[in-house]
UniProtKB/TrEMBL annotation:
It is found in: Cytoplasm. The active site is at T191 (nucleophile). GO terms for molecular function: L-glutamate N-acetyltransferase activity; L-glutamate N-acetyltransferase activity, acting on acetyl-L-ornithine as donor. The gene is argJ. NCBIfam families: ArgJ, PRK05388.1. This is Arginine biosynthesis bifunctional protein ArgJ. Catalyzes two activities which are involved in the cyclic version of arginine biosynthesis: the synthesis of N-acetylglutamate from glutamate and acetyl-CoA as the acetyl donor, and of ornithine by transacetylation between N(2)-acetylornithine and glutamate. It is an enzyme of class 2 (transferase). It comes from Compostibacillus humi. Belongs to the ArgJ family.
Amino acid sequence: MQTAEKIQLLEDGHITDAKGFIAGGIHCGIRKTKLDFGWIHSEVPAAAAGVYTVNAFQAAPVQITKNTIEKSGTIQTVIVNSGNANSCTGERGMKDAMEMQRLAAEKMQVPVQYVAVASTGVIGDFLPMDKIRFGISQMDENDKAHHFEQAILTTDTVTKHAAVKVEIDGKMIAIGGAAKGSGMIHPNMATMLGFIATDACVEQESLQLALRQLTDSTFNMISVDGDSSTNDMVLLLANGMKKNNPLHPGHPDWQLFLQGLETVMAELAKKIARDGEGATKLIEVHVTGASNKRAANQVAKAIISSNLVKTAVYGKDPNWGRIVCAIGYSGETFDLNKIHVALGDHIIFQNGLGTATEEKILKDYLEEDTVKIYVDLQNGSEKTVAWGCDLTYEYININASYRT
């Protein structure tokens, strides 16, 4: 059987497609009416890996979870609240995050060092702990993954979830994930919250290796607005309930597992980019012909992060000059006369000059929900893909009134 045939993207996949995981969410009162407190729980302790925001001011829950995973390498329960980031809240914020961790451990009857905590929302406000305590008291082991997916959202307009099944050691293991992210998204550890679970058995160090490696090709290749938050993290849990031989880089199916995991992470990354605050279009940038991976990534990130490119796409203006300009300030060096740029199937720049492609054809293409920009640098064999969105008036409306 070919590799592609061993990976099945589920049509409506969720994090709880992985055996032994449940998830749920409720309204505890932090937000006016929307669900705002969620949890994930594994029937058995799971090997855990995490990647975290590189913002210098990491929020209390990020610090608590990072320290917990570094010490134990194991997580069984994850709790998340939206509406309040518990960020820039000093000593009280740390105490509140630790209390969340302790109360969840007591409720789910697991060791406190097996609990991860995450928060998202407004920065600078103290957590309303009476409401958090109520939320924790309502945690149960009924699987309502769609409630969890709703409870972690802030300005998102849709839930984001995906899952695959992969054949490992002759067993069909599942990898499922859920994420939130709509604003403050920039390719520097993916400003977002992401949670991924698998019922495969994976060595903890190898799990961390896989997550860090694949974050660079998925969540670190998206951008909405150039801002990076204080609360971002992605957690990956593997509870081993399918009882395959432990996965590690020397396992014959290791690459297959990585491909399955990357599929889930890429699906979540694209959904975040598509749901950028106020966005009407997904922008997908394909860069080929780079001399090395860094160069390919730098060019792709420069294009998807360019406000001029983003506004041109929103305005249906096929302005190739903005794309070429972004390539030029990417920090890499290229021969302008070798570069080819296309919008979809339509070449718009080559041999150092714009082409004579009819303007109406290009404007019609920019009516599509997904706009694909292809850049061939003709300078090597490396390639990459990045995802972003257009920049609209609605983005300003959303963020001008975020707290009010």
